[in-house]
Amino acid sequence: MIAPLLAIVLSAASQSQDLKRARDRFEFGSYAEAAGTARAWLVDHPDASPGDAIEAYRILGISEFKLGDRAQARTAFVSLLSLDPDHALDPFLVEPKVVEFFDQVKRENEPALAPLRERRRVLREQQRLADEAKKRLLSEEQARSGPPVKVIRVERRIYLFNWMPFGAGQFQNGHNGKGATLAVAEVTLAAVSLGAFFFHNYVSQDPSRHCSPSSRGCSNPPYTDSDRKLLSQVDVVKYVSAGLFWAVYAYGVVDAHIYYVPRVETELSPKAAGVKLSWQF
């Protein structure tokens, strides 16, 4: 599938470059090169678009006229007129004698151009009628079935939220209950762990609670046996709550990834299709 498309693109680029080369030679005044390039381009591109073919015949006809070959110029102008019977050279860009010759060729071939001109007019009229019929058909269908009432709300979800704590990924996925549970659990565990950390520092750094080896109940200074037991218990609470916090966080990340959808489309009822600004996570 890619290869044919690439071939078409390369062919179009080559076609445009060849025609541009002919135009550049023409504008530079190298009429012999311009005529040769334009003629070769026309031979190599028999199915070229009418606009490009008209431009090539215009360059060829004017170039041949400049080179003094009126017969070749006439042939090129007739080919141009066969594509556009109403074509006219711009007198501000083309010198008068070339314009006069072109107009003469057009007058001489008017009997053959008239049917072409009429055919083009008929085709334009048929296209206009077809467009009007299509518009009328759609208008009648809308009048019969009413205006469209289907409204789609598109939500684009942020992948980074899957890695955020406190249930951010669950709230974004629409699992509000689960998100609230995770948020409460993580806040509670984080508060317990931080509280234990600060309490441990308070007890361990309070000079008034330190003891000496000669003091009673101070088998392992500088802390009393009771404070050392308390600090040990606080450490357990601190590390267990921290471990549980990270376990709950990991569960939230995995769960958010399982139900994550980058784009969500929701059909709204006509009553809910009003203008509304909101932020959703």
Instruction: State the order of secondary-structure elements, H for helix, E for strand.
Output: HHHHHHEHHHE
* Domains (count): 2
Pick out the low-confidence regions: 1-14, 273-281
Distance, first to last CA: 40 Å
Q: Strand-residue fraction?
A: under 5%
Residues in helices, as a percent range: 55-70%
Dominant shape:
elongated
Written description of the protein model:
This protein has 281 residues and is mainly alpha-helical. Helix content is 67%, strand content 4%. The longest helix has 36 residues.
In short:
67% of the residues lie in helices and 4% in strands.
Q: How would the blueprint of this fold be written?
A:
Layout: H1 2-28, H2 31-44, H3 50-66, H4 70-83, H5 96-108, H6 110-145, E1 151-156, H7 168-172, H8 176-204, H9 225-258, E2 263-268
Antiparallel strand pairs: 1-2
Helix pairs in contact: 1-2, 1-3, 2-3, 3-4, 4-5, 8-9
Keywords:
281 residues, Serine Threonine Protein Phosphatase 5, Tetratricopeptide repeat, 4% strand, elongated, disordered N terminus
